Predict the structure.
Amino acid sequence: MYHGELVKLRALEMEDLDIILKHFNNLELRQYLATAWPMSRNAERQWLERATTMNPWKDGEFILAIEDKKTNEFLGSVSLFDISKQHQRAEFGIAIHNPDNLGKGYGTDTTKVMLWVAFHVLGLNTVFLLTLDSNKRAQRAYEKAGFKYAGIFRQGSYMLGKFHDFVIMDVTKDDFMEQFPPGSEVGQP
Ligand SMILES: CC(C)(COP(=O)(O)OP(=O)(O)OC[C@H]1O[C@@H](n2cnc3c(N)ncnc32)[C@H](O)[C@@H]1OP(=O)(O)O)[C@@H](O)C(=O)NCCC(=O)NCCS
């Protein structure tokens, strides 16, 4: 549906349940998402039921599946949440599930495409995110996609026995439009 250079973003489907469960109960992945507890098939099915019927304006959330553009391999999901009509802003979240697929450029490309959706499709004005201070790979990917460092949210996360700082990053429509003005696309179909 939306194309980058390496990925395409499409609606999540109930058929994605098995592939999501295959890699999602992995502590390394889940600690970065600040939810380091096991996810049952039933809980994941309920999440997927919600995600597959979501409307960004009615539900304030928009979640898409990430696929490899060439092989159609399911890679993970990407979201805009706490979408505010009044403030025209949203928070950004992403997870590439299979550890073998990390560090291959998928996250940077997906982030660019989802920002393109945020600004060109939803007409938002700013997008922000929180990421663990220790998650340098994520920060680098976000920076390459256009996010800038905005500050530190001290001790915002409690995980595996201690408090951790979050890094806050943001990107404005004006910043993004310099790189991707109206009429431009991140990648060709
Ligand atoms: C965060 C995430 C989306 C990034 O996607 P990705 O496909 O792995 O990242 P990319 O390959 O696009 O880019 C990673 C960049 O970080 C760099 N990097 C990797 N490890 C690093 C480290 N420890 N310190 C600094 N940079 C690092 C890579 O070299 C690359 O930069 P480069 O292209 O300039 O060399 C993905 O790793 C992921 O889903 N991780 C698990 C869940 C998660 O952390 N979600 C985000 C929660 S906020």
In short: The two ends are 8 Å apart (CA to CA). The chain has a mean pLDDT of 95. Residues 25 and 68 are 22 Å apart (CA to CA). The first helix runs from residue 17 to 24.
